[in-house]
From TrEMBL:
<dbReference type="InterPro" id="IPR007197">
    <property type="entry name" value="rSAM"/>
</dbReference>
<keyword id="KW-0411">Iron-sulfur</keyword>
<keyword id="KW-0479">Metal-binding</keyword>
<dbReference type="InterPro" id="IPR024032">
    <property type="entry name" value="rSAM_paired_HxsC"/>
</dbReference>
<dbReference type="InterPro" id="IPR013785">
    <property type="entry name" value="Aldolase_TIM"/>
</dbReference>
<dbReference type="InterPro" id="IPR050377">
    <property type="entry name" value="Radical_SAM_PqqE_MftC-like"/>
</dbReference>
<dbReference type="GO" id="GO:0003824">
    <property type="term" value="F:catalytic activity"/>
</dbReference>
<keyword id="KW-0949">S-adenosyl-L-methionine</keyword>
<dbReference type="InterPro" id="IPR058240">
    <property type="entry name" value="rSAM_sf"/>
</dbReference>
<dbReference type="Pfam" id="PF04055">
    <property type="entry name" value="Radical_SAM"/>
</dbReference>
<dbReference type="GO" id="GO:0051536">
    <property type="term" value="F:iron-sulfur cluster binding"/>
</dbReference>
<feature type="domain" description="Radical SAM core">
    <location>
        <begin position="95"/>
        <end position="248"/>
    </location>
</feature>
<dbReference type="GO" id="GO:0046872">
    <property type="term" value="F:metal ion binding"/>
</dbReference>
<keyword id="KW-0408">Iron</keyword>
<protein>
    <submittedName>
        <fullName>Radical SAM domain protein</fullName>
    </submittedName>
</protein>
């Protein structure tokens, strides 16, 4: 796994600081903001940077791995948090761990407390690489709607090159928010919103919130009317797989304005680990219900995609829909993947995928 935290020496600071690590001489248009710290010395096991006359020693060998990274450091700590990695297309800012749902397979179970980092994240966005795509996730980001929109709108004005993918449970959009949504510009923001069933009772049961389905439909309608780009997301579960085809019909009838529908495999972490035995659906053993849903969506003009499906677990005619969706820092491959010609196109596995398997039929292509 790629480390998202690096050991470092302590700096004499009393508030969190955001820095950009610079190792090479290449300059760019965002370098004059005072956050840049330059490499002064490279030893075999660590790199040294000059931070306003103080030495910051970072435990890593290869400067090219962190050149241009935007990092966060807290007072009294000896850890650098890599907020935005310059060499990665998979950067996500976790803006809160609070959530008003408790989805049975949630990979990032909610916490009660919120640490407000919006100011720090706004600063980090100013020195992000040109054209970077940044994920915004939680918890539920819209529980802190005012701060979230303020951060995104500020980035829209000052860094119009940035693209955002915001994951939200769709429980908190109001009519009054649509002005901000429109100002954000659909070309720059994609809203990733989960719907787990066309059956309202089942959806509410999966997200563990009464009335969630009805509130979600209100939000989706508002977003649809405002021209927002929407990625509808459905985690595949034993609970919902039988009705996946009905869901394709529902989406085409009621949510035809979405950009596309992503069907996603589960993660064996967080609450997902607790319900893995009951809810993991082995699509390598039975792809039929998924195929029917994809075909139905196709016929009805809904674009579909598959996330987190190892390519060899998907029948050949459907493989072109399967994307390399797992973020680089948590993406692994198994022993059998070594000689597989499809590996460059395959999503592989989450680092926490059960070692004793889960998919019954996998094999190099
Ligand atoms: S064997 Fe190939 S297709 Fe299957 S999971 Fe490994 S890399 Fe992907």
């Amino acid at each position: 796994m790629i480390p998202l935290r690096l050991s470092c020496s302590r700096l004499p600071i009393d508030t969190p600081i955001v820095l950009r690590l610079r190792c090479s001489g290449t300059d760019d248009q965002f370098s004059a903001r005072g956050n840049d710290v330059w490499l002064t010395r490279a030893e075999s096991s660590h790199l040294e940077f000059d931070v306003q006359g103080f030495t910051l020693s970072v435990k890593i060998e290869d400067p090219s791995e962190i050149d241009g990274d935007v990092v966060l450091m807290f007072p009294q700590q000896t850890t650098l948090h890599r907020l935005i990695r310059a060499n990665s297309a998979h950067n996500t800012l976790l803006v809160t761990e609070q959530c008003d749902q408790a989805c049975i397979m949630c990979s990032q179970p909610p916490k009660k407390r919120h640490a407000d980092m919006f100011g720090v994240f706004s600063e980090a966005l100013q020195i992000a690489p040109f054209g970077a795509a940044i994920g915004i996730s939680g918890g539920e980001p819209l529980l802190h709607k005012e701060a979230l929109f303020s951060m995104l709108l500020n980035a829209r004005r000052t860094r119009p090159d940035l693209l955002f993918h915001v994951l939200t449970n769709g429980q908190h959009f109001d009519k009054e928010d649509m002005k901000d949504v429109e100002e954000l510009d659909p070309k720059h923001v994609l809203w990733g919103i989960p719907l787990y069933s066309e059956n309202s009772c089942l959806h509410d049961r999966i997200v563990k919130k009464n009335g969630a389905f009805a509130r979600l439909m209100e939000s989706l309608a508002l977003l649809g009317r405002s021209g927002a780009r929407i990625e509808l997301r459905t985690v595949l579960l034993r609970s919902n797989v039988a009705a996946l085809e009905d869901m394709a019909v529902f989406v085409s009838r009621n949510l035809a304005f979405i950009d596309y529908w992503a069907i996603m495999q589960m993660e064996n972490i967080g609450f997902g680990r607790r319900v893995w035995k009951e809810e993991f659906f082995d699509n390598s053993a039975n792809f039929a219900p998924i195929a029917r849903a994809l075909d139905t969506a196709d016929i009805r003009g809904i674009e579909t995609t598959l996330y987190n499906f190892p390519l060899c677990s998907v029948p050949e005619p459907y493989r072109r829909r399967s994307l390399r969706s797992i973020s680089d820092w948590k993406n692994v491959y198994m022993a059998q993947c070594g000689g597989c010609s499809a590996r460059p196109l395959c999503s592989g596995f989450f680092a926490w995928h059960p070692k004793n398997g889960a998919f019954s039929k996998l094999g190099a292509i």
